[in-house]
Design goal:
The chain is α+β, with helices and mostly antiparallel strands and about 200 residues long. It folds into two domains: about 5-100, Ribosomal Protein L22, Chain A (Alpha-Beta Complex), CATH 3.90.470.20; about 105-205, no CATH class. About 25% of the residues lie in helices and about 35% in strands. The strands form three sheets. The protein has a five-stranded antiparallel β-sheet, covered by helices on one side. Helix 1 runs parallel beside helix 3 (about 45-60). The chain is globular, with a radius of gyration of 17 Å.
């Protein structure tokens, strides 16, 4: 089965990425957990989205978790009784980041259309860090902000105003996010594979 990447570090952070090559029935047959996920699966109308969901269930099993361990908060963010979890999928890849600290993950495929929307989420200061003519560079900016947004856990966030990429060097970014008077700082690691970028964000002490 195409488990693309599985990584754990000394801080007890766990990253798993799945390269989706299976069909729906093949993924269902490969699952080891009971069928408590069926109600959720049947509520998903698109078969493509069903396959994404099933690949996430396979990744949960790689972390010794099941669908029953997941809950969702009022903003639709996945939660666990113990620890923090973040989920992403983009075309042929899905991923989970799991930790004892607040974390977020985002995978994005390189697509030209991002060059038309970068002014909506990149500030003038951040243009010093990115090449606005490069799909790869601008996709990095988006995934950095999206991963931090998912870790932060609050809605009504202006990506251009409220998420500030303060530095980017050697595929590591320092990011500040705030809402009203509340702010947090995150360290973001970036990884490129094929024509995708993956950003993983973890709250800084």
């Amino acid at each position: 089965m195409p488990l693309y990447k599985k990584f754990s570090d000394h801080k007890n952070n766990h990253l798993v990425i799945w390269n989706i090559k299976e069909g729906k029935q093949e993924l269902i047959s490969a699952l080891k957990q009971d069928s408590s996920y069926n109600l959720k699966l049947s509520s998903i109308k698109s078969e493509t989205k069903q396959i994404e969901f099933l690949s996430i269930l396979k990744l949960l099993e790689e972390l010794n978790l099941t669908f029953d361990d997941l809950n969702y908060d009022e903003f639709g963010k996945p939660t666990l009784h113990k620890g923090f979890i973040s989920i992403t999928h983009s075309f042929q890849y899905s991923g989970i980041y799991y930790s004892k600290k607040k974390i977020g993950i985002d995978i994005e495929k390189f697509r030209d259309k991002i060059l038309n929307i970068w002014p909506k989420f990149i500030s003038k200061h951040e243009l010093e860090l990115f090449d606005f003519k490069s799909v790869e560079s601008i996709t990095k900016a988006w995934t950095i902000k999206e991963s931090v947004f998912k870790a932060f856990g609050y809605d009504s966030i202006d990506f251009k105003k409220n998420i500030i990429i303060e530095s980017l060097k050697n595929n590591k970014a320092i990011v500040r996010i705030y809402k009203n008077e509340f702010s947090e700082n995150y360290l973001v690691d970036l990884m490129k594979f094929s024509n995708y970028i993956c950003s993983t964000a973890q709250i800084m002490d």
